[in-house]
């Protein structure tokens, strides 16, 4: 059990420095020299419309772009350069230092494996766990993310639970090894409004209790208002505006930002 306790305390929030990041597919450049920083423990929102480059940027940070993508520039996590690392070198970083929650939990989770197994996959990859330790970890994670009746949930398959429960299980899988940086890509857009608030509250609780930095990618500025300290506005593969959430909401300068706020009906 000490190995699980060590896993919970190994990581801590990480700082991130992105400088002149470019991503191209063939001759077409998608991301045009993006630069920003993330302080340890900070919650950053990245907003923009479809095709603005926000998800490609997150995938580049996590080293999850397809092999045909060409990536240049710098991504440093706690001073360590990630761009150019091989899959072998990135493997121990993913899950244990950086984790990602995707938009659609139904596709992010395997339909053929029970939720308990999937919630503890990263732990099992990085730590040698007995069957009892893995089950205890699954139960702990289920409770941590607010899954009611955890005994049933860890034995259930994804199709046997609701969309909100699947997303909570996906979050549990992402944070199981206590990563220092959590990337959440449109984490509530596939959920109905009544479930969204609970998921956003969970992100705040998880990042605070796990001492974790957060980058939340979304098209909905109301989501950023709930979870972020600072926001970057993306358009056409670059950052067009940035500031604290309050600054962006009260004094939006760019027309893209103004249209995002208008689309959300204004944010209280």
Write a structural description.
The strands form two sheets. Strands 6-7-8-3-9-10 form a six-stranded mixed beta sheet, with helices on both faces. A four-stranded antiparallel beta sheet has the order 2-1-4-5, with helices on one face. By secondary structure, the chain is an alpha/beta fold. The chain has 13 helices and ten strands. The protein has one domain (2-263): Rossmann fold (3-Layer(aba) Sandwich). Helix content is 40%, strand content 24%. It has helices spanning 2-9, 54-62, 87-90, 105-108, 115-119, 121-126, 131-144, 150-155, 163-175, 193-209, 221-227, 245-250, 255-263; strands at 16-25, 28-38, 43-47, 69-77, 80-81, 98-101, 181-185, 213-218, 230-235, 238-244. GO terms for molecular function: ATP binding; ATP hydrolysis activity. It is a peripheral membrane protein. This is ABC transporter ATP-binding protein. Its main location: membrane.
Please sum up the structure shown:
The protein is an alpha/beta fold and 268 residues long.
Euclidean distance between termini CA atoms: 45 Å
Structural class: alpha/beta
Query: Number of helical runs?
Result: 13
Q: Rough shape?
A: globular
What's the CATH first level?
A: Alpha Beta
**Largest beta-sheet details:** 6 strands, mixed
Pick out the low-confidence regions.
1-10
Instruction: Work out the strand percent.
Output: 15-25%
The domain count comes to 1
CATH architecture: 3-Layer(aba) Sandwich
Give the strand order, joined by hyphens, for the main sheet. 6-7-8-3-9-10
Query: Radius of gyration, Cα only, in angstroms?
Result: 18 Å
CATH superfamily: P-loop containing nucleotide triphosphate hydrolases
Q: Could you spell the SSE succession in H and E letters?
A: HEEEHEEHEHHHHHHEHEHEEHH
């Amino acid at each position: 059990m000490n190995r699980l306790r060590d896993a919970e305390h190994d990581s801590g929030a990480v700082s991130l420095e992105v400088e002149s990041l470019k991503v191209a597919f063939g001759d077409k450049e998608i991301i045009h020299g993006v630069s920003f920083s993330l302080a340890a423990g900070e919650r950053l929102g990245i907003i923009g419309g479809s095709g603005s480059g926000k998800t490609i940027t997150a995938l580049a940070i996590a080293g999850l772009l397809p092999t045909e993508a060409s990536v240049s520039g710098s991504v440093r996590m706690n001073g360590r350069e990630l761009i150019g690392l091989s899959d072998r070198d990135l493997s121990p970083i993913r899950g244990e230092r950086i984790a990602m929650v995707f938009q659609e939990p139904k596709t992010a989770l395997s339909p053929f494996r029970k939720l308990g197994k999937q919630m503890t996959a990263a732990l099992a990859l990085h730590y040698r766990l007995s069957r009892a330790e893995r089950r205890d970890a699954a139960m702990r994670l289920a409770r941590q993310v607010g899954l009611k009746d955890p005994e049933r949930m860890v034995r259930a398959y994804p199709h046997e639970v609701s969309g909100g429960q699947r997303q909570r299980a996906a979050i549990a899988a992402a944070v199981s090894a206590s990563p220092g940086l959590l990337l959440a890509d449109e984490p509530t857009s596939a959920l109905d409004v009544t479930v969204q608030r609970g998921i956003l509250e969970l992100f705040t609780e998880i990042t605070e209790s796990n001492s974790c930095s957060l980058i939340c990618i979304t098209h909905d500025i109301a989501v950023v208002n709930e979870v972020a300290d600072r926001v970057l506005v993306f358009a056409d593969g670059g950052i067009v505006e940035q500031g604290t959430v309050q600054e962006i909401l009260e004094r939006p300068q760019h027309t893209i930002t103004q249209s995002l706020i208008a689309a959300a009906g204004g944010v209280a």
